[in-house]
Give the backbone structure.
Amino acid sequence: MRPPKAHVHHSASSWRRPCPPEASAERGLLVEEIGERILALGQGRLLVGIDGFTAAGKTSFGHELAERVSAAGRPVLRATLDDFKKPWKDRHLYDRESGEGYYRNAYDYEAVKSLLLDPCRSSGATACALCSIDPLTQRDHSTELTPLGEDTVLIVDGVFAFRPEINEYWDFRVWLQVDPELSVQRGTERDQDWAGTEAESIHRDRYLVAERIYLREVDPLPMVDVVIDNSVFARPTLVTP
């Protein structure tokens, strides 16, 4: 008998995007397969990282995966690394707007670890924070805690998820593969509402430059458990078995 569906806890961030409707049976089967591979790792807390270029579809895939895992009766926490960036008010202290500056300085890995990853990894911890600084409102959510169960599955999406600062935490690593130009195109369309005419330059000259530094310095693909070509949302394909 199938266990009852468990709850999915989401970040309080205003940056959060909704779970997309099921695009196709083909996509649903692939997400289910990845969910089964994660659940096969066993009981106890599991930490899953989803990485890939900006606008590769990481957040949507994380939401879909969370629904599949929770349907198997495992409680899920959803978080995104974008909710753990350094506050904009401090940007005069460092470069965050060039490609290299974004890669080196935008994310607060100490906050990611202390608020989210360390508690999830510690058997004695009973709660964690799913958001530090809201990237849109800049509101501090770091004191808003979410309960941790013994068998909670944490699913975190975000660029640079497999950097040395946090790579050791993951039990399962997913890479969503898209062409760099498709990343720029998707990101530009997605961010028109807040970036306006600067959206393409932000994606091409900041995010894409940062991601190429990441690929060159970290070379994350050999570390991952699965690579998924997410170029066509309704027809994702496994690149690695």
Summary: Helices lie at 25-39, 58-71, 99-105, 109-121, 180-190, 192-195, 199-218. Strands lie at 8-9, 46-52, 76-80, 127-129, 145-147, 153-157, 172-177, 226-229, 237-238. The longest strand covers residues 46-52. The chain has a mean pLDDT of 94.
